[in-house]
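Researcher: Sequence recovery benchmark, item below. Answer with residues only.
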């Protein structure tokens, strides 16, 4: 998804945002849709808060914005409501 060369290109990562990203990736890959949605919202809120407070550098903002842009369409309608129950096939 995002290679190591991309990580090394922008400088130091924000550990709080990275921790949320780890959870988001894990929950999405395990099909924990509600938890992944919560992680995405948490990531978005913290990113906006850190950006507004001036705690992120320009390269960090661009990097995390790219990640948010990647996840935004995937999180749209990403719920368990779109799954049919086994007995309802």
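Model:
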């Amino acid at each position: 998804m995002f290679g190591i060369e991309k990580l090394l290109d922008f400088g130091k990562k924000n550990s709080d945002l990275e921790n949320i990203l780890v959870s988001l990736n894990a929950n999405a890959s395990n099909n924990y849709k509600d938890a992944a949605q919560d992680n995405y919202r948490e990531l978005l809120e913290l990113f906006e808060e850190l950006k507004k407070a001036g705690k992120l550098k320009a390269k960090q903002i661009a990097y995390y914005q790219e990640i948010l842009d990647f996840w935004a369409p995937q999180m749209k309608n990403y719920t368990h409501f779109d799954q049919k129950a086994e007995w309802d096939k």
